[in-house]
Every structure is written in C-alpha cells, then in structure tokens.
Design a protein that fits this description.
The chain is α/β, with parallel strands linked by helices. It has two domains: 162 residues, Quinone Oxidoreductase, Chain A, domain 1; 150 residues, 3-Layer(aba) Sandwich (Rossmann fold), CATH 3.40.50.720. 21% of the residues lie in helices and 27% in strands. Strands 3, 4, 5, 6, 7, 14 and 15 form a seven-stranded mixed beta sheet that branches. It has a six-stranded parallel beta sheet with strand order 10-9-8-11-12-13, sandwiched between helices. Strands 1-2 form a two-stranded antiparallel ribbon. InterPro entries: ADH-like_C, ADH_N_2, ER, GroES-like_sf, MDR_fam, NAD(P)-bd_dom_sf. GO terms for molecular function: oxidoreductase activity, acting on the CH-CH group of donors, NAD or NADP as acceptor. Pfam families: ADH_N_2 (PF16884), ADH_zinc_N (PF00107). Keywords: Oxidoreductase.
Amino acid sequence: MENQVLGKTVENKQIIFKSYIEGIPKETDMELKIVKELNLEKVSKGSNGLLVKNLYLSCDPFMRGRMRDFTGSYLPPFVPGEVIEGFGVSKVLDSDNPDFKPGDIISGFTGWEEYSLVYNTDQMRKVQADDMPLSYHVGLLGMPGFTAYAGFYEVCKPKRGDYVLVSAASGAVGQLVGQLAKLYGCYVVGSAGTKQKVDILKDRLGFDGAFNYKEEADLDKALRRHVPEGIDIYFDNVGGSMLDAALLNMKIHGRIALCGMVSQQSLSNPQGIHNLLQLITKRVKMQGFLQSDYLHLFPRFLEDITSLYKQGKITYLEDMNEGLESAPAALVGLFSGQNTGKKVIRVAHH
C-alpha cells in the first residue's frame, strides 16, 4: 500500500527555474536536477501538508508570465533556483490534512518533480474515481476545461444562432469552447496555425469553418470570408493582429472574451490594439476573466462536461509527453504551436 513507500529513500527528478527571462521561453531557462537521496518521511504534524507522488503535469501558456520579474499579476513569479510549479494530478502518500488521506488522487498546484510536499491545499480537490482518464483533470475536467466553460457561458452570454470565432481553436481551451458553442446552436469558426489543425477542427471537432491564420495575408479579409454575417462572440486566446481583425468584424452588441494573449506573452513590448473605436460604434463588450472568478460553478461544470463526454457529444484532444525530462521542451513548444490539443506530461504510471 501507499504507506509502504514511507521511510524509503528515492531519487527525485526536478525541473528547476534558472532565472527571469525576456522573450520566448527556451529549454535552457530550465534545468533537470536529480536529488539522489530523498527520504520519503511522514508529513510533520501540524503542517496541514501533503506528501504526493506526481502523476501528470500540465503545460499552460500562463506559466510564461511567471518567468518574468513582475509581481503585479494574479500569480507571483517563479523563484529562480526553485522547482517550477503548475497544475498536476498527484497521488497522496502521506497527509496531515483532514480532507485528504493516503491513496487519494488529487488535482491542483504541485511542483514539477516526481515527489512534492504541498502545503497550500486551498484549491486542491479530490478526483472522484470513475472511468475518465486521470490526465483529463488537468485538461478537459481541470483549469483549461473550466476556463472554456466559464468563459463561454458567463462572459460570452451566448444566444442560439450566434456567430462565434475562436482563436487557437485546437488548443486546450479553444477546442472545448467551439464544441460547447456548437451544442448551444451557434455557427462556429476557428483559427489555427497548421493545415492539420484546421482539418481536425472541421473533421473531428465539428466546427463549421476553420482557417490557417499563417496562410492569410490579411486577417480582416479572412474573417469577412469565413464569417460574412459578422461575429457575435469572439473568444480570444491570442490577442495581437487576430484581435484587431475581429474588432473590425464584430456585430452590434457583440461580446469579446479575453482569455489569453499567447501572441503577446513573450514580448517585452507588447503590440498595442488597433480598431478600439469599434467597441463604441458597435457597442461591443470586451471583458477579461480568470476561471478562478467562477469557482462556485465548478461542481456543475464537472457534472455537465463529464456527462457530455460520456454521451459522446464532445471530443477532447490531448498531446501527451512521457517523462519529467521532456517537460521543458513541452512548455517551450506551446509558444510555437507545436501542441495539438492539451499538452500534458506523464511523470509516472499510477
């Protein structure tokens, strides 16, 4: 049982953040460190902490923001020389927390390492045993899935028959937004960065239309071609020139949900936004949001999305890397579009 590992000495691989960066992340901004002899001792009494074995780790674009020396964001920066932190699915080995016991599978913030001591357990949640893949709890049933759910229903305020544009549409969030919009009765167009991703959007995810933004010399014309009626809802994951073009093509009383700015996150001097006059003339609402604003809806989200998935009404694309040592390359690859679907690292088989 789990307690049989306590008291044993194991090797612990870790991904260490080296120093604050400018520009696009590189693999050399992180390093693999091996702690040769980690003694898996019981968690100290009164700490409220957990000793966990990490099973799956999530690669997410927001992690780029934590690699700069900037404290004015909703999450603090990573600490140079320390283990990188992110969302994960873990198995509890020992617990001083009454909410969790050895053997429980949990999801929440953990270290990019094989074994972690976790003291901040406020947003940890127990994963219920069912036939859903455990890795989905950092994707479809985790932060990205909930971002799509809260952003689409609460921020976009959809109406049946709306014309919806989703950028980075084959990514962790965009793929679910598009499918939820289709199920709601909307007309859905997605943008992506390769022909393969465009084909996936149309053939596997059921989008009405899709295009490769890298092949379009003029994004305004591309949107006029794909959504000639105009856009009611733009779910923005990228910012930059796609947001500029979407502004020109919004309908009166359109809604823009600002979810991510992946085109701008690695720029020291992000581009300004043009075409903001459109917000006035068309009375468009543009709102940024964080999934953590809507955590009261999380139980309903889990129930709804699990049910839709089990009924075969939604598909989820996952891009799995094997082994903790592959994590730096996986994170860096997000910023050049190397992933198709949700990027996950499998650290251990449970």
